[in-house]
Amino acid sequence: MEGSRAIQQIISSNPDEILEILSTKPLPALYGKYAQRLVTESQLHSICSAKTPQETVAVVRLPVDCYSDHLPDKLGAKILLLEDIQDPGNAGTLIRSAAAFGFSGAILTEKCADHLSPKCVQSTAGTVLSLWVRRTSHYLELAEALKLGGYVLVATDIGGVEDNSVLQHRDKLLLAMGNEASGLSGTLMKAADHILRIPIAQGKAESLNVAACGAICMYLSTL
After folding, report:
1. What CATH number does the domain located at 78-220 have?
2. By CB atoms within 10 Å of each CB, which of 1, 132, 143, 204 scores lowest?
């Protein structure tokens, strides 16, 4: 996990997951409880995938069961479902928005960008550990299990209905976002309880980026 703000986010939400902190300069007292290692800029460049890495990097324990087919015991009230989101920047931004708007977990298809890939982790800005994640080919079965457990499945599609109320005042919400080019699959659309469209100025923009659409929907779910 790279960058002081991202590391501070991990310290705030999952302090016990940090194994070691690497830095090119002495660290402030905030990091005093963790094992620390001073490295050269050259060494940091060899460790990080970023072209211009920041001065501080945290070595973090991988989340348990994130590639499992089984849902966690504590699901939470709001869950995000990402079907084949291929751009790691979009996937990471959606996970970051989910954390910001109080979502407890996210289900990703196996064709989604890996939420633990470097660019995706960078896009989450340290929030990737703030919610549970399941990346699996059995996402439809998990969605069905959630529906049987009382979750309302809201799918997003340009052919849907402009009705923000389908997201609001839900005790249990499963929000589905689809692939950047093809949207959600027909199977998931058929399973949806509601299909939502976000109104945009016709003639000025054909559609919204999926990360922007997701952020708007997740915000609306808090109203």
Report:
1. 3.40.1280.10
2. 204
